[in-house]
Every structure is written in C-alpha cells, then in structure tokens.
Amino acid sequence: MTVILLTDDTLQGIGLRYLLRQYFDIDATIATSADESADTPSTLYFVSPQRFAASLDFFIPRRSRTIITGENLRLDGSESVIVERLDSIVKNIEQRCPDNESAELSQREIEVLSLVARGLINKEIADKLNISFNTVLSHRKNITAKLGIKSVSGLSVYAIMNGYISESDLQR
To answer: pTM surpassing 0.85?
Structure first.
C-alpha cells in the first residue's frame, strides 16, 4: 500500500508519517500536490479538507481511497487516540479488496441518483431515462444497498458531496 499525505500543516504531515511508520510499518510520502502519475489502485491519500476541495476532479474518482483529515481522521488529542483512529482506518482499508468494486455505483445508478437528488419521482425518472418503472426501483434498491442511505435528503447530500450534482441543480 502506498500512502500519500497532502496536508496544509507540515508538522501534522510529519507527525502522521511518523505514526504510520512507527505503529503500522507503512512508509508514507508527504506531497505538495496530487499527482496522477503516482496513482495506483493501492494508493491511499490522507488529505486536508482544503486540498480535497481544491482538487475535486482528482479526488472524487478516488474517494474510496481518500481519508480527509478533520472528517474521517481527526488529528487532535493524544497520540494513543490518534493511533486508535488510524488503526481502525488501516483495518478498514485492509479489509477492502482492491478488485471489489461493489460499493461503487454504476453509471446508470449515478444517473438515477442524480435525478432522485433533484427531486424527481420514480415515474419521472423512468420517463426521462427511457427505462421501466421497475428498473428505476431496482436501481434505487441497489443504490440504497451500496450506500446505506435510505432517505431522499440523505441521497441528495451524498450526490452533492460526491460531485454528482451541484447545489444549483437543487434549485428548481
């Protein structure tokens, strides 16, 4: 596993690199920007919220391999607390199989998700995509199973946070 640290605070990056090396035998690299040439399916990114927001086009496709500091990993507290948080993240990453993309939405599911998030009902989605009502229901069932989000408002937030729609798309 390759780990790249993209933090705004150099000391935070050095500390995180030390903890990963000391406790998990993971050699991390501190980088100044996201680099597509260094990207592999096993690359894991620890990134600050500001850098994530500045490079959405890079990180959105890699969101399953991106840990946002301050959100997924809070770097406050004692060393033991941070190590516990890192341990749960590392175990979660190791349990994932790189070939298993079951949590990834298909292109059609993304289309259905964006229409659901925009407030369309199942019949309108079926008409717009030229698919049957039952197919829309199947896609929605698959989306809910993959994401674990059942409410339309939750799906809307997910769609916005992952760049599938913008806030202006919600304004009708």
So the answer is: no
